Amino acid sequence: MELSPGPLQAVSHSAAYLVRNLVDDVPLSADGQATGVRITCVEFWNSNLYIGTSAAEILHFVLIPPDSSDGNNALPNFILASRLQPTSSTSSSANSSPPGVQQILLLPSVNRACILCNNTLTFYSLPELSPAFASQKPISCVWVGGVDQNALDALLAGDDAPSSPSSAGDGVVIMMCLRRFIRLVRIGEEPRKVRDLEFGGCLAAARRDTFACVADSRAYALLDVVQQQKIPLFGISSLDEEAAAPAAGGLSQDISGGTHGVSRSASSASATAGGISRGATPAPAERGGHSGYGHGRSSSLGIFSSGRESSPAPQPQRPASQNRYGFDVPESFSRIQSPRPSTSQERRPGGAEQHSPATGTSRAATPRAGSPDKPTHQHQQSADAAASAGDQTAASSQQQQQLQQQDKPPLPPPKPFTPLKPHIVSPHPSEFLLTTGTARDEPGMGLFVNLEGDLVPRGTLEFGSYPDAIVADGEGMLPDPSASTPSLGASGGLQPGASGEEGYVIAAMQRKCAGDGVEGRWKNGVEIHRWDVGPADEGAGKEWLDLSGLGAGQAPEAAEGDEAGRPPPLGIRTVVARNEITVPEIGEKLSLKRLRLGGTSDTTPKGEAEKRREKEEADFTSRLCKFQSRIVLWAGPAVYCLVRNPLVLRLDAQLLAAESSATAASGDAPRAIAPDRALVEQLLADIRDREPPHTEAEFLGLSYVRQKASVLLFADLLIRTAAGTVVSDRDREATEQALVTGEVDPRVIIALLPALREEVVEGSAGIWIQGGLRELLERFLRQGDVVEKLVFDTGDDDRSTPFYRNIVPLVRRYLTLWRRKKGNPSIPDGPAVFASVDASLLRLLLRLDARSPRGPAVAGSVRQELNAVVDGGVGVDSASREDDAACFARCVTLLERSRRLYVLSRLYQSRKSAANVLETWRRILDGEPDEGGEFTDGGDMELRKYLGKIRDRATVAEYGAWLARRNPALGVQVFADDGSRVKWAPEEAVEVLKEKAPGAVKELLEYLVFGKKMSRYADDLVGYYLDVVVGELERSNEAKTTLLQTYETYRALRPPKPTYRQFIADNAISAEWWHARLRLLQLLGSTPSITFDVATLLARLQPHEAALVPEMIVLNARRDRHDEALRLLTHGLADFDTAIAYCLHGGRAGGAFRVPGGSIPSAPSSSAGAGAGAADAGADDELPTREEQSGLFAALLREFLALEDLGDRLAQTGQLLERFGAWFDVGEVLALVPPEWSVDVVAGFLLSALRRLVRERSESAVVKELCKAANLRASAAVVEKVERLGPAVEREG
């Protein structure tokens, strides 16, 4: 968390760390009577808590796991197992009391503990703290520690392999800081001395492998404990002039206990016994041999004597090519001092323009070790010569500066020097962090030093005041050197080239903070810094965690030298083992809880199933609530654990701050929800920039935060909509994107809209969401002034209102997106979720489509989307038929209520419910209102097509017959179409129609007879026609009179006149029997392929022979009674043209009464059937032979000669002989023609006959001559062949 410049802000759940209680009330004294006893140190290992007190006692607590019946988040309990008084010296200064237990150093790998009490070191066995090494006497010691942190890190990581020489062999090497030197001792079965280092008065140390950073009361130094070299670094306080510059001029010093010469150069250092070469890498034999941490010859009998042992044998000299480290101190450390007070709270950058904390010297002037700017042995002589040559110039310059300073005002007197406690931590295997300052109450600085003695260019840490104690946590997200962009992102996530976890430095301190009406009150707290980021990176700021409330049960007692009113300082340290800490707040946030929309979830009684579900959720999230920490702190009589604040709690705290931009009127009343959109959007942007989650807890936590953030953005949209504000497209799109990314249960969004809340389906289990999200929703739903305004507008349905512009498009797209997830098994409570989505989306689209024009949907319209929704199917794809049926029934209700019958039929089609589809269409066609109007035009044809696609025979029969009654032509196609999935035999179709649609039987028979040429149904069709016609003639004399009048009228017409068939078609009357007679004539005059029982028909027509003349003509023709047929044509009808056509067609009925084009009723529309019928007709109408035609024309001539009217007789006979004379024999005609007739009557016939005779004679002559020529040609060919073959002699015998 980055804080803006200014006073540090107090943080809680948004801070990087949380404080958790370990032991509430530590019994600091056995009898409870002693006062002024305080906790001095704490350690923890393997469920054992060791607490040292100022009363020189160690309290041993044992961790008792919580009872399973207490719940998953029950806290563990520490019980006091023993109270130990370590051996210590009772002598103390006259002005001070004994310090008590100063250090507890646990060595888990060898099950030993080192306890420093009143400057006396004793050894114990773990875990019960029984005395160890009985033969050893207590040792006077200043400080103990220096365990290799690399080995400890490997042990914590579970790596059993030694990571350094210090962990090789048996035992653990520690550093005992005596008054005059540091002694390295290997603790194993027995303590064994390794070596002594010439560094007295050590108060703090941290070691990495062979390098240790140590401090006395005034300055820091970097040691190589194997090569026994020292680099003086810088002082602890900038006011300490003696420690401002190293005594040896900042060069490497030998601390082996022999000749303490100064290594002036790399070559001289390599020639010194026990020294190391600059940049040299110690060989394994050198680092692990007798002079290193290997098996030395010293025994445990004399390692604690006050005398000094002789230094180890000198190391063999190595060539310069093997140089590894140069211990010449950098110039920056030869000049650096502790920082002056600073008002800036930002990290100081490590760039070229950074000034040194004490002298103001730019870091650009500080050469790194091994850089060209640093003097080396090869250039030492030239450098000394240059220095000597410039002494005179420097002296004159100094005199001029003194003269200039005399004119300036005098500087303020320097502050008095106050010793500061040194602090050393190693946050990284290659770095040490050291603190410097001026006074305890003034700002301090943390400087990073690497193993070469150089400042780390990453920058420094600035503390608000000089720390009382510091710890480092986390390996740090340092960049990989091979990466191209080794930096940390603004969100704190790993960037390319970075690895590990965030690195923090935690400093316990006291600060003067204004508050509670007291100016400058001292408060305890910790300052939290990120150490693994540069000053330019976001996240490099610091956090102030106010812990003044810790240890409040004990009255503050001022320590010696402190001013009155200052509380005892906090203690903080890193223990050797991790402690498991439970953070129940995570369970409260992430555990799923039931959301009740009808009432408050907390007051509604819970059923057994709900209680069981909550327990299961608590059991699941309990795994996510457990964290480990090695940082403990103490205040007063209590011990606490400092645990990293989980990511979900930090982000949720930011969302809590963004829930409302105003505070509540009452401290107890919850704030009204009025989200700060900018803060929420920024948090979502930070989450997007993070690396993908690596753990289950991170995944669930980020999912929860995204959902809560998206709900807050949607709530902001609702609040602004209720206020009548039309939001910008950017805000609407950002909200929609957040909802999509967060994957919030759509029922939550629907529940926030009263217009759609009715469509929420909670299901049998209810709606289960995270506890933190449920609390937010319940609070928002109680804001009735906002929620109740979010309804569909009434009246004109104005689409420009804020609700339609802000909410409706967003919800429409969001619900549509969720519909695409239907069938995804990973959706919790999927049936209820998708049932709610379908019903809500359908209701929303129906509302939007209410104002659309009537008619079919157009592309891109709301109606098209509505159709797509119902076509895609509503309901749920699950095994629960009840859920599916309920959802489907709800959608049907919505459509029925909106009177959208056609859309309802499409919904039924999506379920393949053919009967309901057809029933809905029948309701529309019968006139029931349909608001959409999509089915009015062409509804009959669509129903007919749909009937051809279904397989239910009973349904087809029912609705096909209904369609046949409504539209016989279309209804017949349902039963006669060969492409339908349900095939009907003609007999079955006729039976169904006779029973349910008698009026359509005729249409079916016509289609079968004319369209499909099925002659076996001709008798039925003819019988149907005869029943209609004959029945009418028998019932009504008017019909018979009408027919007779048509004959008289037609006979009265003078030639040229139309045929009788054309005459009655042109003068048809609108009577059913009349049209039935026309179709009867058509059927009777059809091709011979359609056969029927002629004898039966003649028997039925015989009583009405005078009225049904054309019918009798056709029937006589079919029975080859041509003379009778011609007689009726010429004498009964006087239809001479039809009589001539009859002869030309050979007496066939089709030729006699061929219906003109367009007058014959066509078969039901079927292109294949029509084509087939035309082909069959063409095949049946074959022309008769000439002999047949001649015979018929001879009979017709006789009938013409018998006509009663002389004029007709002469005219028709003359025309017949003239037009068709070729079919007559001249002799027969002359014999039949009366002799009294004028030659003019037959003149045309005679002329044509004579021409024909002359032509035939000429043709015969030509044929005769051609035959002669052919005979001569054949004779010539025979002669030539005989001559060519010659004579042939045949002998007999």
UniProtKB/TrEMBL annotation:
Keywords: Cytoplasm, Protein transport, Transport. Residues 263-281, 378-408 have a biased composition (Low complexity). Residues 36-524 form the CNH domain. Residues 605-615 have a biased composition (Basic and acidic residues). GO terms for cellular component: cytoplasm; membrane. Residues 409-419 have a biased composition (Pro residues). The keyword Flavoprotein does not apply. Residues 334-344 have a biased composition (Polar residues). It is found in: Cytoplasm. GO terms for biological process: autophagy; endosomal vesicle fusion; protein transport. Residues 250-430, 474-495, 596-615 are annotated as: Disordered. This is CNH domain-containing protein. It comes from Lineolata rhizophorae.
